[in-house]
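Protein data sheet
==================
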Amino acid sequence: MPGVVHRGRGRRSMNEINMVPFIDVMLVLLIIFMVTAPMLSQGIKVDLPKAAAEPLPPDIEPLVLSVDADGAMYLNIGDPQQAVEADRVLDLVSAVLRREPERPVLVKADRAVAYGRVVEGMALLQQAGAQKVGFATESPASAPRKSGTR
């Protein structure tokens, strides 16, 4: 028969993408990030003094020198759980401040640490080129007011 066109009964192409594996991977990544995010705290645990102060802007990550109750110093660059000697603090901080001279610098000292040790840390930061050094504090708990009669 002339003029008859034969159409093959081959497989038709599939135009849909299976999204189930993609969704599974995204949910696993979400769970991983939710579990690990609380563990990414900066520095070491110190008992900060309480004071009323304005917080830093959230878009700038400060350079933090932590001093624990035993007087050991830690930086939030490199390994924040590893104590750093004074000469190493000077080297690391000066390198960071050469790249980012406007980066805020904070001292996060435990309430029980000797005042002299905190001053040593501040002096190291200033020798490294920090123009301004701030202190990290906790907000004071709002004390209940006593009501009395006059």
About this structure: Helices lie at 20-36, 86-99, 115-127. The first helix runs from residue 20 to 36.
